[in-house]
Amino acid sequence: MRFLITFSYDGSNFNGFEYQPDYRTIQGEMEKALSYINNRETKIIASGRTDKGVHAIFQTGHVDIYVQITEDKLKRALNSLLPNDIHVINTKIVKDDFHARYMVLEKEYKYKLNMGEYNPILRNYVYQFNKKLNILKMVEGSRYLIGTHDFKAFTPNKDKRNSYTREIKSIDIEEENDLLTFTFRGTGFIKYQIRNMVGLLIQVGLEKKEPIEVLKILESKNRSNGFRTAHPEGLYLTDVVY
């Protein structure tokens, strides 16, 4: 049977999602638990990978289970075996041709940034930027990123692929008590794309770049444009839509 598994994790103490033999990863821990239940080596195919230090409130993946087990029992068995920084929210039997990555219609990510006093308690969960930003200018700059574009300027130079085109459906930036929350919804995102977009918008918020420069950088398709990748700890995968 093929199961769709919905799970969350605190990425602070993982070396990213993707399995690496010499490091602690989310995929490694998930597959260890799944293999024990399934009585054979078992792979999980996730909706996508997250980087070192990035969190997920709502991640999904599919897995093939060859022992007789109910949805509820699989959830309970996984949570009894997984470390306490990963939690399975739901398990659901799906069709055998379901694919957790290729069938994604839309994803949502949130990025959290603290403009106020440094908070050591939240240092692994909110980017401690600790400077005021011009939010109106950031909102203006973000509008140039909405739509279908080639986002090569927001990916690492060493990242080589056939297409860098993605569609961003919406970007919202909200502030409450010095906590800035960016919400990105789109059909999919490339490695580091969101953190690079946030990094550029921070430069706009600092008034070191004008909002129109977001469009110029987007159209340049060149990553070497004088802005830093935002820290990973503020980023969360928050929704996956099929």
Short summary of the structure?
Helices cover 22% and strands 29% of the residues. With 242 residues, the protein is an alpha+beta fold. It folds into two domains: 2-94, Pseudouridine synthase I, catalytic domain, N-terminal subdomain (Alpha-Beta Plaits); 106-241, 2-Layer Sandwich (Alpha-Beta Plaits).
Taken together, the total number of domains comes to: 2
Structural class of the helices, strands and pairings?
alpha+beta
CATH H level of the largest domain: which superfamily?
Answer: Pseudouridine synthase I, catalytic domain, C-terminal subdomain
Taken from the alpha-carbon principal axes, the silhouette is globular
Distance between the termini: 19 Å
| CATH fold title of the largest domain | Alpha-Beta Plaits
- Broad CATH class of the largest domain: Alpha Beta
Low-pLDDT parts are: none
What is the CATH architecture term of the largest domain? 2-Layer Sandwich
Helix and strand arrangement:
Layout: E1 2-9, H1 26-38, E2 45-46, E3 55-64, H2 71-81, E4 86-94, E5 106-114, E6 127-128, H3 135-142, E7 147-150, E8 165-176, E9 179-186, H4 193-205, H5 212-220, E10 235-241
Parallel strand pairs: 3-10, 5-6
Antiparallel strand pairs: 1-3, 1-4, 2-3, 5-9, 5-10, 7-8, 8-9
Helix pairs in contact: 1-2, 3-4
